[in-house]
Amino acid sequence: MSAIKFDTIIQGATIYDGEGGSTFCADVGISGDKIIEIGDLNTPAANVIKGHGLALMPGIIDVHTHYDAQITWDPTLSPSPSMGVTTAVMGNCGFGIAPCPKKHQEIMLKNLSVVEGMNLNTLLEGTQWKFESFPDYLNFIDEQRPHPNVAVLIGHSAIRTAVMGEESSTRVIPTQEELNTMRGIVDEALTSGAIGFASSFSPNHSGFGGRPMPSTIAEDAELYALLEPIKQRKGVFVTAGGGRATPEYLEHISKTFDCPTFLVSVLAMYNDSDPTASSSYYERCGYALDRGHEVYIHANPHPLSFDFTLRNPYIFYAHEAFTSVKMAAAEDLKAIYKSRTFREQFAKDLTENHVGVIFSGAWDKIELNETPITEIAKSANMNPLDWIFDQDLDTQFVGKMYQNNDEGVAKLLTHQNAIMALSDAGAHVEFLCDAGFGLFFMRHWALDTGTFTLSRAIQKLTSDQAAKYRIKKRGKIKTGYYADLVLFDPESVGISKLYRLNDLPGSGSRLMRNPTGINGVWVNGKKVVNANKPLSLQQGPGHILTEFDF
Prior knowledge:
alpha/beta, nine-stranded mixed beta sheet, 30% helix
């Protein structure tokens, strides 16, 4: 009999330890924030949780979130912990909010509102500016006591905005002094605990007033200068890519700066209109990995559906016709859409091969009330382009362009270079809620389709992320590891349908899902979710992660 006094024992659950192998039944003993014993623990504990008939897994690690602003007013990072997420990586695509001098706070949030589809009033009223530098931002997050653990990427666009102001979106080449300052910021961020550096080359990433997001206009010389501190301090590099971010380009970065490199791109997502394009990206990244250079792809296990309106038609923004739309006042949108010049320009745009755009003319993939608009337009004797721009500005459409063919997507998710990601949690909240990507992955890709065993699926959501992102002692149920745990029912685990909440600052709304089959979620040994519902805690148990296994 063990003599150890535990804070919590979870008894008799089927253990999925995060390593992808066989399951076993055991008790898990927790003291403080760590797992300290696994076995038959017939010993006293402050809390005893009956896990018989349930399964216990490590907490999900979500490496692609955008909670950078939300965490300043909502340390719970709703809804991620309720979805089994115990660690979130923020700052993706380079769109963080630190560093940020006071004079640039408004433009930082205005850009964020457009590029990440966020309500501007929510951002302006909700964001708590109690920091300017990146180290101060990390300290502020720590003081917020988040519910999940948080790691933060230092972002290229944020740095450019902080140093170059509004010119960051228009002036391609910084002065030598500006470049030195930006490089110093990256070095300082990595020294203070950033997990790495993030950027974007994507043509879909436009900011306020139609201006490109700052990093998208930066040249290679600038990018390489900002990556130099990675080579010395160590960290990951993550980029949202357009045509520039080829696997070969990223392999060069991984080799030159000795860093794990991650690609986020629609070009690497399955698309029925070009079914071999995405697999080519995976194959080429696979060659890089075979040569010893870590190049991975953020693979979205959830069908990528874009909810949008003509008031915020972000899936079209990469096209030239929408330059005027992005810059227009709300009251001018109807006139622009009615314009024959606008419609002809957009039709012309769709005949050209623009690399990396979200929408390239597949009108049958856009639906209204689950009916393709091609059918609706046909019944009205109209072409779909004219029909859609005759609709009300607030009509809700759904674009189903990517990751919607199980057979094609399965080949990507099972590739050695795939890392399960792309929840985009915290962004596009008026249009989607994929924070439950992990529960969906378990339900659909393991339990429903059998593409993965449940044990392997859990590994892909936990220890795989921890290993690739160098996150210490998380992602496994193992003695000495942090007690980030999810107790669940394999028969019912999953996510609900979407519904709308009006609970954001500035009267903002968001789409939401609920988990199913979740009995409890623990972060660092403290329960944060009980029976599918988050607990009301005065202080969250999450750690700000600043040390990694590089």
